[in-house]
């Protein structure tokens, strides 16, 4: 008679209601993780996320051993694996924390039926968001599609306290037919991942350490510094949150006690809004929420897309962002908006192409947030940016990287240009370029598009389309 605890994206010990519940049942506990690379054929886990997952699971396994437990790994079709495990250990209970993605919720419904047929008590818990997505509606009973009234409604609701952490030793159930973490083959066979450990240390302990440091040293400056990529004034918690290494309830409770928390708290609200939209409109990862954009006249520009991906557009702030993404698996949020606007508005490339690239390269790749962000920039989603809001990448660079520290870090071929010209090398006097060792078209490209002309074209197209 065994209790199975099925870990998904709740890779922590503290404030883990499924683990807490399992610890109270007084049965041997079998902690499991199942990796199914084909689970969602459209959104199978990207390379950077797989890197993070490997080390996060490694950390969780170590934390569980301190409780007298272990973490058993399995690979293959999730429901098939769960059925075999339930049968093998004569499971009395199976518990987990909900993963709020459309395919995951469908899988969990099927698990409920499967467990019921086998006389196994199945119980899911709400652990990774403040609110159950899709439940907030307007007074008319419609789903919210604008953030501010959605978040105002959320803040009127009661939010439960964090569960705390399990500290007592538990009895470990045995299971022989499992595989090792290494056998999951999560680590990407690509050279750029070698730089990740310099910036990232996955796992619950590091998530909590980072959060405490942010609260102590950065949150009082967050409202201002979060827009300046060279300052690194953000929390850098996004991948920890995505994999559930830190509880959002813990973050929310800490923020309520901090007088500088309002702006950061709204960012937590946007995360909730993203999941609300994903569950309410499950088609949106690949299709626009606003139906009139279904046949929008995007252009398939393979060369421009490749230049954007490689950070070779000739637009310094865009190239810096794309190279930061490639080197570190992460990009500053302000720059994410700049590069996204450039792809969909200046280059007229479909937002889905940008979403796919982010999905594969970001360590914090998150289906809900990725979808919301790209549809916002493309103007085809909920609470979307107005079609005439088109970021000027040159002025954005000058405003938010005034000393060009960010550009110099990630676009080193421009590092010797003076601040007055580094964001617009194509406008620089030839003598300035030569003195800095910059030769346009040779060691740094000319801009692949004329921004002013592209902006006019985009406004014209969007203006016509939004009338439909």
How would you portray this structure in words?
It is built from 21 helices and 5 strands. By secondary structure, the chain is α/β, with parallel strands linked by helices. Strands 3-2-1-4-5 form a 5-stranded parallel sheet, with helices on both faces. It is globular, with a radius of gyration of 24 Å. The N and C termini lie far apart (61 Å). InterPro entries: Crypto/Photolyase_FAD-like_sf, Crypto/Photolyase_N_sf, Cryptochr/Photolyase_FAD-bd, Cryptochrome/DNA_photolyase_1, DNA_photolyase_1_CS_C, DNA_photolyase_N, Rossmann-like_a/b/a_fold. Its cofactor is FAD; (6R)-5,10-methylene-5,6,7,8-tetrahydrofolate. It holds the Pfam family FAD_binding_7. It is an enzyme of class 4 (lyase).
